[in-house]
From TrEMBL:
Its main location: membrane. The keyword Chloroplast does not apply. This is Transmembrane channel-like protein. It holds the Pfam family TMC. The keyword Metal-binding does not apply. PANTHER family: TRANSMEMBRANE CHANNEL-LIKE PROTEIN 6, TRANSMEMBRANE CHANNEL-RELATED. It is a multi-pass membrane protein. The lineage of its organism: Eukaryota, Metazoa, Chordata, Craniata, Vertebrata. It comes from the Eukaryota. One of its GO terms (molecular function) is mechanosensitive monoatomic ion channel activity. Belongs to the TMC family. Keywords: Membrane, Transmembrane, Transmembrane helix.
């Protein structure tokens, strides 16, 4: 029966008769003899071939044994062909189940001409002739020596050779061997005359094995040492050589020291190796927020707090306030009300570093030292801090977009992780165990992503799932709206209660101070309990993908946090700031700063309670009472949104409380170690491994747009539109905070008429909102263009990958077409085959 080749989507391959099989084997033997002509050392079988053959697949690749005759045995059963290699008893079985294979090129019995073409393909012949490779790179090194002034790059080298998984044959011909040795010597000489960087690049580009590259490198070094020993190096050259080596070792040691100073590096590796990249992204995000707050604290501390601390405050600020011990730490009132913590402590004077007067004949002349305009510095410090933070956030977000939204297929990443992820410089046992656990967890995530398939449901079940999702969203949105309304009406009630207590002179000051904690406690309780309700609703929806479940939870928690913060900002800026006299407030900015301090502190306390009751006690209850071995899974969405909520409070409060970033730093430090300990004791890794490739990008994006953008709008509105307090703060007596810069510009123009253009520039650039909107538009356009560039790169990569796949299909088509043409020629003019008589007698 002749083999028919079909070009349909599912080709049906018929096997040839035993006589034709005998002819194919003889052609195969003839091809082997042609390939190994004048060779005694030949290609060895790789483990990959043994594995494929053991599964019943025959790879059309010449199979040779070193210095052993090939023996073919055709059994009486046409479904089994044994190719046995003598002395080693290595048998390759081709099973008759080949038609069930998905790839019609595997398991096909090719003709000798087709096998010859296959064996001559670049992917199968490259890497066999080591002499050709050495000759080629000998010429390259010679060309490189001639143009030493222009250092070449590896990407400029033509890829005429690639490493093959096949072994390299060794030339046994005496002339060929001598010629190869000459080329090898010339290559060593040329490599010796190159610089170190060029030599490293050239050795890396050679398609040779690591052992052969190491051998070439040792030959170059030994020859260099021999030449150095023959030619005495001058003392100055030796001293220069030793100085360069010492500086290089010192630089490498400094870089290693700097890398070891990374904050929480070992702890993050432990978390990532045990719980995966999803939980690791939470701790990385926490560290990022810590760096942002350290930057804010350094800016405000050096430019605002320290200059105000070294000067004496006004006399009316030295007030003794009675307060209950301990309660003022929770409320931020009492002693802290008249301290560097809040806006009201800072004065509106120009601080002088020196002031001296001297008497002369014309009278007394006074000279002042360096002046420090506190209102101007306060205004520009807050503005510069927000501007630099915006630049850092936009840069981090664009960089994270470029790294996480690449076209990285899981199979390719899995291969990279398997073959090239181990760091062989790690020799410490604890580091080895840590790296092994980290790589193992990442492999689990990649394998789970490769094996995860989108489930297809019937129409009725799909409609039912859609109904469940809609019902869940209605429940979540309804509960969020109810909580927002509760916060609004409760804040209005407490505002009226505080006004009544202020008007009533006989009210208890302790009870009045404790009542300030009511709104923060209610808001923190909602932020603690409602995400648990969201988790129950998500459990009813039964999402198959853990990443999708986290994204849905993040969106619902984000909606809750943004809504609550919007109501609170309206309460502070729309109620308290517009009518501070009704509450008896002399400095409403300090009161808002105290409110933000209380909210930040209550948020931290409720996070402690959630860690203890929600994780520790629940783990003990489930293991002791319910007799379950499983521990709760770390809730990434809720914990991340808690971090964003706290950071938004810190950004809102930096104008009213310059030291509030210090409170946030202390909170984040405690939170990191507390969450790390609780994670190891009370939580376990997710039962469904998943790779959080875009989680950090989403966290940075949420931190930028809803959180930082909202805080910037509120702070800008406060500085632009709301009238500051008349009795406190650096902006007392001004219509708005922007007038501090305007007064300074006009003062400079009055002193020096050449600077009159500063007033116009300030009015058009700072006071005019069009310029601010223009800057915001430029930032948005930059983000848009960067996202479009990343999207275009993704599309180009997808097209290139599709082109590679199409080229592979084209090769399969050409090989199949070649086999079809050969079959037609053989049917027209059959060629006599060696051993045909035995085949006929067999049939």
């Amino acid at each position: 029966m002749d083999g028919r080749v079909s070009f349909d989507a599912d080709p049906v391959i018929d096997f040839e008769s035993p006589a034709d099989e005998d002819g194919v084997h003889d052609s195969f033997s003839q091809l082997i003899q042609e390939q190994c002509h004048d060779l005694h050392d030949v290609i060895e079988m790789t483990p990959l071939d043994l594995e494929e053959d053991s599964r019943g697949q025959i790879t059309p690749q010449p199979i040779l044994a070193r210095n052993r005759p090939l023996r073919q045995e055709v059994t009486s059963d046409s479904s089994l062909t044994d190719l046995c290699v003598s002395d080693d008893v290595e048998c390759l079985e081709a099973d008759s189940d080949a038609p069930q294979q998905t790839d019609h090129l595997i398991g096909e019995r090719w003709s000798s001409d087709t096998l010859k073409v296959l064996s001559s393909m670049p992917s199968r012949t490259i890497g066999r002739s080591r002499g050709a490779i050495i000759s080629q790179y000998c010429n390259r090194t010679m060309q490189l020596r001639r143009r030493r002034q222009s250092r070449p790059s590896i990407q400029h080298f033509p890829r005429s050779a690639r490493p093959s998984i096949r072994g390299y044959g060794v030339e046994t011909d005496a002339a060929g061997f001598e010629e190869e040795e000459n080329k090898r010597d010339r290559l060593v000489n040329n490599l010796q005359n190159l610089s170190d960087s060029d030599r490293v690049r050239m050795l890396r580009a050679m398609p040779l094995s690591l052992s052969e590259k190491k051998e070439l490198r040792m030959l170059v070094l030994n020859k260099a040492e021999h030449s150095v020993s023959q030619n005495q190096i001058p003392c100055c050259s030796q001293l220069k050589y030793y100085i360069i080596i010492a500086l290089r070792h010192g630089w490498y040691g400094w870089l290693s020291f700097l890398s070891s100073l990374q904050l929480w590096q070992t702890a993050l590796k432990c978390v990532g190796g045990r719980f995966g990249t999803g939980v690791l992204s939470y701790f990385i995000f926490l560290r990022t927020l810590l760096f942002f707050n350290v930057f804010l604290f350094l800016v405000t501390g050096l430019l605002l707090v320290v200059p105000q601390a070294i000067t004496h405050p006004d006399q009316d600020q030295n007030i003794t306030v009675r307060s209950s011990w301990g309660l003022e730490v929770l409320t931020g009132a009492g002693y802290f009300s008249h301290s560097l913590l809040y806006y009201g402590y800072y004065n509106n004077q120009t601080l002088q570093t020196g002031h001296s007067c001297s008497a002369s004949g014309n009278g007394t002349s006074c000279s002042s030292g360096l002046s420090y305009n506190m209102p101007l510095v306060y205004f520009f410090t807050i503005g510069a801090a927000f501007f630099i933070t915006c630049i850092i956030l936009v840069y981090s977000m664009s960089k994270s977009f470029g790294q996480s939204f690449r076209i990285d297929k899981s199979k390719g990443l899995l291969a990279i992780k398997v073959f090239s992820s181990w760091d062989f410089k790690v020799i410490k046992k604890s580091s080895v165990r840590l790296q092994r656990a980290n790589i193992g967890t990442q492999l689990k995530e990649l394998v789970a992503e490769v094996n995860r398939q989108e489930q297809k449901f019937p129409v009725l079940q799909r409609l039912f799932r859609l109904f469940i999702h809609m019902l869940a969203w209605i429940m979540c949105l309804g509960s969020t709206l109810a909580c927002v309304l509760a916060v609004y009406y409760f804040s209005e009630h407490m505002h009226g209660d505080l006004r009544n207590r202020t008007q009533a002179a006989s009210s208890d000051p302790l009870l009045k101070e404790a009542s300030l904690l009511a709104v923060p406690v209610v808001v923190s309780s909602i932020n603690l309990l409602l995400p648990g309700f969201f988790n129950v609703v998500a459990w009813m929806e039964k999402y198959d993908s853990p990443s999708m479940l986290n994204y849905i939870s993040i969106s619902r928690n984000l909606l809750l946090k943004v809504s609550v913060l919007g109501v609170l900002c309206y309460h502070w800026l729309g109620r308290v700031a517009t009518d501070p006299q009704s509450l008896g407030l002399e400095c409403w900015e300090s009161f808002v700063g105290q409110e933000l301090y209380r909210f930040l502190l209550m948020d931290f306390i409720f996070m402690l309670l959630d860690t203890f009751f929600g994780e520790f006690l629940w783990r003990v209850f489930s293991q002791k009472a319910l007799k379950r071995k499983r521990k709760p899974v770390f809730d990434i969405a809720r914990n991340v949104l808690e971090l964003i909520y706290g950071q938004t409070l810190a950004w809102l409060g930096v104008l009213f409380s310059p030291l509030l970033p210090a409170v946030q730093i202390i909170k984040l430090l405690f939170l990191f170690y507390m969450k790390k300990v609780s994670l190891k004791m009370n939580c376990q890794a997710s039962g469904k491994p998943w790779r959080a490739c875009q989680m950090t990008t989403i966290f940075i994006t949420l931190l930028c747009f809803p959180a930082f953008l909202g805080a910037t709008v509120c702070v800008t509105y406060t500085m632009w539109s709301i009238t500051p307090s008349a009795g406190c703060g650096p902006f007392r007596g001004l219509k708005n905070m922007f007038q501090a810069g305007k007064r300074w510009v006009h003062r400079l123009a009055a002193v020096n008429p050449d600077l009159h253009w500063l007033a116009s520039a300030h009015s058009y650039l700072v006071e005019n909102p069009l310029f601010l909107f223009l800057c915001a538009g430029i930032f948005l356009i930059m983000i848009y263009f960067h996202s479009q560039v990343v999207d275009g790169q993704r599309k180009i990569i997808e097209l290139l990958q599709e082109q590679i796949e199409n080229e592979g299909e084209d090769k399969k088509f050409l090989i199949t077409r070649l086999q079809h043409i050969h079959e037609r020629k053989r049917r027209v003019t059959p060629r006599p085959v060696k051993g045909a008589s035995e085949a006929c007698s067999y049939s």
